[in-house]
Amino acid sequence: MSNTHRTEAGTAAEPSRRRVLGGMAATAVAVVGWNTVSQSWATAAEAAGSANVVPVPGLIGTLETTPGVVDSFANDFGHLFDGAASKPWAVLRPGGVEDIVTIVKYARANGIKVAVNGQGGTGQDIESHSVYGQARVPGGISIDAKGMSRILSIGGDHAVVEAGVTWGQLTDEALKTGKTPPALPDYLYISVGGTISIGGIGGTVQKYGLLCDTVQSIDIVTGDGKLVTASAQVRPELFNAALSGGGQVGIIVRVKVRLVPAPKRSVIFSLFYSTVESYLADSEKVLAEGRFQVHAGEMMQKPDGSGWRYKLEVGATYNTTPPDREKLLCGLQDVRADAVIEDVSYRDYMFRLDAYEAVLKEGGHWYTPKPWLSMFLPASKTKQFMKLVERELDASSLGGGFLLFYPFFSSKIKRPLAVMPNESVVYLFDLLRFPNPGEPNIQGMIDQNRRLYDIAVGLGAKRYLVGSIPMSPADWKKHFGNRWSGFVNAKKKFDPQNLFTPGQGFFA
Known about the structure:
Blueprint: E1 5-6, E2 12-13, E3 31-35, E4 40-43, H1 44-47, E5 53-55, E6 62-64, H2 67-72, E7 90-93, H3 97-110, E8 114-117, E9 120-122, E10 125-127, E11 141-144, E12 151-155, E13 158-162, H4 167-175, E14 179-180, H5 192-198, H6 205-208, E15 215-222, E16 227-231, H7 236-242, E17 250-258, E18 260-261, E19 265-273, H8 276-289, E20 294-301, E21 308-318, H9 325-329, E22 340-345, H10 346-350, H11 353-362, E23 373-378, H12 379-392, H13 395-398, E24 402-409, E25 425-432, H14 442-458, E26 462-463, H15 473-480, H16 484-494
Parallel strand pairs: 7-11, 8-11
Antiparallel strand pairs: 1-2, 3-4, 3-5, 6-7, 9-10, 12-13, 13-17, 14-18, 15-16, 15-17, 19-21, 19-22, 20-21, 20-24, 23-25, 23-26, 24-25
């Protein structure tokens, strides 16, 4: 990464370890410190003669407080907490890991909150991909993950990447060596660090677990400003608290993630079911038999809009000889009349949402508020819950979105804070609403989320850390259950001043 910076006019400037950009107005007046009394950034004029201003430390990168920059980091993909109340005081664009260490020490000394902002997306639509303010840090320091987005090495059975690298970047680079991450999200333009901090799920979960389960080690800056390495063998308490812990114990800066040989092609079967009962039967049959390398599905509107049907989306990968389609479908219910079967390149399938993203943007759905509901359901109660969901939802509940719904083995989930229902088979329930532009009932959707969540929890469900569900610290304590005390202890040990990621709302 180059240490060359840009001046406000856009011309090249000499590298400097003491360059601090920013300003309290468009004129970009330099910030020189933090006023511990007013809890705000101070200019040189404001700091003159004041014993209350703690000087900003020297940085390789930049610390910015210009309104345009701060405003852009006040928003996220969900657009439910946009606005002045979500603004950070400053944005750190790190020039290296040293800047993150420095700024964490500074934040700790001055009681300033800190959160990483993943800054994922495509084109000009780059923003945090949290949907309920999880990455917001009002009055604190937001760290731009794009400042740490290098792929450091790819070789053998793993890759080492900085935390701001997206899964799309990593996938394309790994494919050049014939490898791929074994688990990928459906949408690839989100950061590695942000994803593993909440778990990460995709269509190979039945084989490889969550994305965080494919992580071999992390480098992380803890609340005392120490940069350390953690893995399942080295500092396991920190490792387990960081993966699926919602960014509470440190700032992940580097990740060593597993790689596997990449197949060349995939045969994707889309099988449609008119009832939840028939869908559940075939889904659990192919899960138990391990027929497919990819296993996903969804609840969707019938073509005539008269109600709901279910799609089982399963894939068989290969390199040279295509799989026997008849054998793969043998013993499944008679749904072939409407089946869609495609033979596609591995990369095309992994990046399949690119075209759908374009459609959502064209229709305006990409930019609407997103009251998502993401949970894990126990298999024994799934039919009961889905019958309720069929009555609760209609086409307007989804807008341009979709409801992902498919099973996997809970034994594949290794990280303790990725809490699962207490059954061997669980279902992802992922209501990804993209409301129609101008939808007047966003709050009603959030209220519905909470109502459905309470019902699901009563049936033994657990929530996924993404999504838009109003939660109190007491709710979170109930969610984590017997993992809560260990989580609290890790928080006290690695972030004793409660600096990190306040937007999750885990701790009061």
